[in-house]
Description:
This protein is an all-alpha fold and 206 residues long.
Amino acid sequence: MKTAAICLSLVGAAAAFAPTTTQRVSTQISLGLDDIGGSSAPLPNFDPLNLANFGSDETLLWFRAAELKHGRVAMVATTGYLFNAAGFHFPGMLSSDISFESLSTMTPPEAWAATPTAGKAQILGTIFIAELVTEGYQGTHYMKGGDLPTMVFPKIDFSGVSEVTMSRKRTSELNNGRLAQIAIMSFLAAHYIPGSVPALANNAAF
Length: 206
């Protein structure tokens, strides 16, 4: 449905994998791209803007967490957009006068515009709470040596998974998130700038 990308974005901060333990950091730059994971072929340690050397170790860890969370949001949003484009939608009513079926006839940006203010407030409020939880206010912050953001709900136990497997899964999650960010930006570009994405031109879903 058209609102799938919006509604599902509530869990944008949710993760697919267990947290990554990071070492204690200082105000000096001692960490590098090889220390934070995510490097893979065909462009290992791709950093054309040299952001790895911008700021301190805390800055680099913040960049890693930002990419991780944005990738998760993008994966959920892309799945929702495609779910809607396939013609699926929730049953029932979003509000007293707006049905999910009616929203399914719109693109996600149009569906968001048609969502009542109270509904938008609930969505944004939920995202805010999830952000607080994943930012580590209940424990050591990842910029201070704590775990990188993990799932809000439900909690998944990966204690029985080997470190080699977890490392591969973490890299896969980052790569899938990177691709999803390109995808959702392409969807939005196709909507707001007709013809900007030739593969999606004249597609009513975008």
